[in-house]
Amino acid sequence: MSDAAEAEAARLAVLRSYAILDTPAEAAFDRLAALACDLLGTPMAMVSLIDETRQWFKARVGTDLREVQRELAFCDHTIRGGPDEVLVVPDLKADPRFASNPLVAGSPHLRFYAGAPLFGPGGTVLGTVSVLSPGARPEGLSETETRGLRNLAAMAADELELRLQSRLSREAAVSAEAARIAEERLRRAQEAAGVVAFEMAGRGGTITDVAPRAGGLWQVLGLSPSSLLHLRHVLAMVYPEDRPAVAAEARRLTAAGGEFRLEFRVKSVRWLQARGKIEVTRGQDQVPNWRASGIILDITERKEMELALREAELRQRTLFEAAPFGVIVIDPATHRILDVNGRVCTEYGYTREELLSLSLADIDALGDSEAIRVRGRAHAVRPGTQEVEAQHRTKSGEIRDVLVRAQGVVLGGRDVTYGAHIDITARKAAEAALRESEAEFRAAFEQASVPMSEVDCATARLLRINAAYARLVGRRVEDIVGRPFSDLVHPDDRAEDLAGFQRMCRGEAPMHEVAKRYVRPDGSVRWTELTSAPVCDDAGRIVRSVAIIQDVTERRAAEERQVLLVREVDHRAKNVLAVVQAALRLTPKGNTEAYAKAVEGRVMALARAHSLLAAERWTGARLRTLLESELAAFLTVTATSGEGGQRAELNGPDIMLPPASAQALSMTLHELATNATKHGALSASGGRISILWLLSFAEN
To answer: Which stretches make up the PAC domain (predicted)?
Structure first.
């Protein structure tokens, strides 16, 4: 390693010893930065510390930057200068070292810089106190200003050292208190465990004297009270796996002396701790004489607790790492990330080391610790526990929806917060799609021009209907929803309809199709054709049905009218054929030409009557129209009376004849007109006929 690299490594080691990087703002350093602005008349000042890759601002005025890359830091040039050099750059843009720096060429367009080194122990440069301005300062700094900036850097160094000593004092106090508590606990544990104090003397491997001579030492070692004590006897009682280490330490201590602290198991499977001191002297024969004083205590329970603690920690860590969701442990005061499991690294794309350098605000889309706290308080489930939906940003910049369940706990006297982070991005997307689908379905359902309904399979009650359904049954929506759908169905159709619906709900039929009638409040009936399909829940159970209903009342009425018309036409056609047959039978057959002419006239009369009836859809024929039609074949002019030159006069009320009467009367008129043409008034020139009809009513 080069001298420069060794010096930089030493500098960084000193810097880290202060444990100040990435700590929250402190008033003392903030005041120094503000004082630098006031003293030197610049809008920007900062107290900076420089590590391997960055310049980090412990205090800053006039900028929101927390840090900059070291290669962009003006202060990096300052710490590489002389031991007491204040670096002043009157115009950064004119200095080739800095002209292309993004902070000069771009926003915030800095032009002036002055920085004084901040020294640690032994002259190690840890950072700077610096001032900056977007305006150039050709005059630089006066001697007084330079001295002031250097003094501010010295004050910052003093504050840094004061902070270190304060921290070390606190840590020492904490350590001392911890030691005191540990000693107190140990003392109580020793008393509870029946600690045995001893003094013994010996020569070589032989124990020559033991005090006190109570049986405690023999008892704790598992020896018979009458046993002679020899080191080999003691070693024989030690658990085989621990015996080599204890024997080696015994040989060393009885030969050279010194303090000892041994933990070992004895054959009774108890853990013992022996600690004390051995002093060794040598006689003329150089055989070591030794004297030991100390205690032996039973630490079995402590060892068992330590084992249980290690197992608990192992289980906790195993569960921590094996959790099927991300777990993030944070400091609730600063939101710094203290620990994460592997799932977090996988889902967020960071390494564990990268995450441990971040805070919760760095990954939460809110980006602000106070806003995160406000949101958490608004979603407190109970004291110390919060459950909130948040959006977190991965290393790649992707935003993920996360359900956070946070629980505050105290570990080692320190407040920490464990947060389970469950990725719900897919669930949120599915919920949004479901809401959109439901909205589309609701709009289609409500605005559909055909009647639609939803029915609960368990109760057969209407859950939802649209306006078209309400119009179909002639009731208001609010009067229908919640009622059994069968209440609206014609009594004669209910049994078949309900049975088909139940078969579908049981899964015995893929759908339910039925033609049925609905009865309106005014008693009118609407014929419909219903098609119903089942709807299942997430477990696949059929829970409701959706039905589309088509109103076929008019179609069925038209079909019925058509059937009746066909029947009527068939009936009339048969009657006409019967009349024709009778005409053929009754017409004299002596003269073939006369026979044909007579038959033709009679058939034409029936045809004319048939045409009139067809025009009125076989509901009947008007008498005057029938008379005019039949006489037209015999007269050149037919009209109502009062016109000169008429040979026929028609008088009477407007009467509609039934179909059968119209056919019979047409034949009769044809025969009368034929006779009048041959033998009567129409056979002579100027002859006239008159037809008069009246209505008469029979008295009851």
So the answer is: 512-564
